[in-house]
């Protein structure tokens, strides 16, 4: 008897990060406590903070927000005995097109994040922690605030937590819905009451973060992973994933598949396996291009179906794992138009602080409008590449760099699609109204 590929994949999977999501009232402290909730905190408070930092280092946990920086190493950068207050800031400003793993986690299992916040704060000797959540995420913010109140009532947050002598205050702060505030220093400025714009570095947040004090900024998925590592141990955590990209990951699948949604898998799974888990491509659709980590990561194609979706595997294929927002496009989708829509987003969300991003995205949107209106020229393609070259590495933060990714990668793999618009083989996608101000 043979088993299907889908069944073989499923047999390898045991939910860790999402194990409570489908439980009745999963967001309540009662359900959380019934399913190992706050056991890791009790264990952590008996350990020395430095031992917890070493545990996270040993686990190989890397940032789940896109950069993949070793979490324990980041915690270890915080100077101790400096006489300054220390802060933990959780980046919950999830706003990249296609990315949707932090919001369902906060909606269905907010206490896993809160427990991780307490443990991480204890490890870095912080007495105040902030969760900065995207302003539009009203439902998730309500769940999170209610969970914080429940944790206070239970004595998991506040003064003398569980009799340990450790004090912690946790604040949930809703931003104004600016994508730029997903950049950690812009987030810190916003928390301080200023306009959210990236800071010049150095100095770095580890020494001069929130209120010019030592600060750790971590993603929701990173912090929510910590309780599982404390309970299960570093060796157990490393049984999942790959050698350099350990642990499970939540992959956000959207697009031309039968069952879009969140899929928790060990890092290193391939897109072929993920599509199989998601019920396959929609009828009549064949995979053509996809994003491994959101719209700010270079596009990949059907030739990359078997690339391991971990930090090293995706980098080896010429892209970035990013936020594991896997947007799947078929032979019925246009890579030129998709790139144009992403660029509109980046142009709109640019904070305007630095010239390359502010001006470059503005003009690239207009070049795309010309091409998609049937008014493009061959020189437009050189203009796009030249503009990307002037944005990449020359912007204050990663927003500018991310905006160039779909442009350069779509030109690399799908230049013929651009030429078909320019040379008249493909009918214009936009009307002449789009050309207003585009010349």
From TrEMBL:
Catalyzed reaction equations: a quinone + NADH + 5 H(+)(in) = a quinol + NAD(+) + 4 H(+)(out)
UniProt key word Flavoprotein: yes
Assigned keywords, A-Z: 4Fe-4S, Flavoprotein, FMN, Iron, Iron-sulfur, Metal-binding, NAD, Quinone, Translocase
Record EC number: 7.1.1.-
Main enzyme class: translocase
Domain of life according to the entry: Bacteria
Domain NADH-ubiquinone oxidoreductase 51kDa subunit iron-sulphur binding: 336-381
Names of the cofactor(s): [4Fe-4S] cluster; FMN
Job description of the protein: NDH-1 shuttles electrons from NADH, via FMN and iron-sulfur (Fe-S) centers, to quinones in the respiratory chain.
PANTHER family: NADH-QUINONE OXIDOREDUCTASE SUBUNIT F
Protein family membership: Belongs to the complex I 51 kDa subunit family.
Name listed for the protein in its UniProt record: NADH-quinone oxidoreductase subunit F
């Amino acid at each position: 008897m043979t088993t299907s590929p889908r069944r073989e994949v499923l047999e390898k999977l045991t939910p860790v990060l999402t194990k409570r999501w489908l439980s009745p009232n999963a967001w309540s402290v009662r359900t959380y406590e019934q399913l190992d909730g706050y056991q890791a905190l009790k264990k952590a408070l008996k350990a020395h903070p430095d031992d917890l930092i070493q545990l996270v280092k040993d686990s190989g946990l890397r940032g789940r927000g896109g950069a993949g920086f070793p979490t324990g190493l980041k915690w270890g950068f915080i100077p101790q005995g400096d006489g300054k207050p220390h802060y933990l800031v959780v980046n919950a400003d999830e706003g990249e097109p296609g990315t949707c793993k932090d919001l369902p986690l906060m909606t269905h299992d907010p206490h896993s994040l809160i427990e991780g916040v307490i443990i991480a704060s204890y490890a870095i000797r912080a007495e105040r922690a902030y969760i900065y959540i995207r302003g539009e995420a009203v439902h998730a913010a309500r769940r999170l605030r209610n969970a914080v109140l429940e944790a206070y009532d239970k004595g998991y947050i506040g003064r003398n937590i569980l009799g340990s002598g450790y004090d912690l205050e946790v604040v949930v702060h809703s931003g104004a819905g600016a994508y730029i505030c997903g950049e950690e220093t812009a987030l810190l400025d916003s928390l301080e009451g200023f306009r959210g714009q990236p800071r010049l570095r150095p100095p770095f947040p580890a020494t001069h973060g929130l209120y010019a004090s030592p600060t750790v900024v971590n993603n929701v998925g990173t912090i929510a992973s910590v309780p599982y590592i404390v309970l299960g141990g570093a060796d157990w955590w490393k049984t999942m994933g790959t050698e350099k990209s350990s642990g499970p990951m939540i992959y956000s699948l959207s697009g031309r598949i039968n069952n879009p949604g969140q899929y928790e898998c060990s890092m290193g799974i391939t897109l072929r396996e993920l599509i199989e888990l998601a019920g396959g491509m929609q009828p009549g659709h064949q995979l053509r291009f996809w994003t491994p980590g959101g719209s700010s990561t270079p596009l990949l194609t059907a030739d990359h179906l078997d690339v391991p979706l971990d930090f090293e595997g995706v980098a080896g294929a010429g892209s970035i794992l990013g936020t594991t927002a896997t947007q799947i496009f078929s032979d019925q989708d246009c890579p030129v138009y998709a790139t144009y829509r992403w660029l509109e987003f980046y142009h709109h969300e640019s904070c305007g602080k630095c010239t390359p991003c502010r001006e470059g995205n503005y003009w690239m949107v207009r070049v795309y409008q010309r091409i998609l209106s049937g008014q493009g020229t061959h020189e437009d393609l050189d203009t796009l590449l030249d503009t990307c070259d002037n944005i990449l590495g020359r912007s204050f933060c990663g927003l500018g760099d991310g905006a160039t990714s779909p442009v350069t990668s779509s030109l690399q793999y799908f230049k013929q699609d651009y030429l078909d618009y320019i040379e008249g083989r493909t009918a214009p996608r936009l009307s002449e109204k789009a050309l207003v101000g585009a010349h």
